[in-house]
Structure formats: structure tokens, C-alpha cells
Amino acid sequence: MADLLALSADLPSRPLAAGETLLDEGDAPGPVYVLVAGTLTVERDGVAFARIDTPGSVFGEMSVALGAPVTATVRAATDVVVRVADDGEQFLLTRPAAALEVLRTTASRLDGMTRYLIDVKAQFAELDGHLGLVDQILDTLVHHQAPRARTGSVRDPEADHTH
Length: 163
Fold this sequence. Notes:
Elements: H1 2-7, E1 13-16, E2 21-23, E3 32-37, E4 40-44, E5 47-52, E6 58-59, H2 61-66, E7 73-76, E8 80-85, H3 88-94, H4 96-124, H5 133-143
């Protein structure tokens, strides 16, 4: 994560006071933020699930990468300083080393979650009733793959041009 801090050194900084919100769940994708100093909490549906204080940590990258609304609220737990890439997509497209660092962070999170899901799956695999469904649900989640990206070109014989 220190690499991402170095790779964002030329970006403008933004201070946040304790309690101030950096990202709101449901916001449109846009900026990417890199933590310089302080502690942020991450919450979803009003439930805090992470406290992040590592300089170089990145926020907003998921919504930019997915082209989807922000999935969590990020709030300053202490006074915070972040670096701001106002156009997160351009930041990642024009700085391949930064994009690789974000990918490493995301892959690490996914690996940790997958390990956890596999552990839960093993615990509930032999149970009957509604707890036995956990095994089937987790199996679906672990093996889910996004659809293959298509160019959308009329020259692509597999593209769906009906809409």
C-alpha cells in the first residue's frame, strides 16, 4: 500500500474532520481516494465492519471498477487526510502501476473473503434444514463469475444488438 501512496503523491490532498463522510453508500462512481493519515470506518447498511488506518489504503475503487454505485459509507473516525483522484477511472487507466496496486488490494480482500466462505461452507455442509442451505448459497457465491465482456461492435457476431 505504500506504493499506492507514492504513486498518488502528485494528487491534491483533502482534509476531513472526525465524523465527516468521505463516501456515501449509493453515491455514483467517480473519485478514488488514497489515505495519507488518520482512521476511517467503513459501514454498509448502517453496520460498521472495518476500521482502516494504513496509509496508502484506497477507497472508491470498487464503484469505479464496477461502474456501479458506492457500496459502503466511509467516514472519518479521526481527523484524516486523503489524496483525491477526481476522475478515478482516468487515474487507474493512466497509471498502470496504481491500477496494479489496487488490483493487489482487491485480490487480497477477495482471497480473505473466499477463505472465510470456504470455512463457513465446511461448517454447515452436513446440516439439514435451513442451515444446510448455507452450503448451497456459498457454493453459488464462490463459483460466481461475471459475464464475459463484449465490445458491443456490430462486427462482433456474438454481441446482442437487439437493444
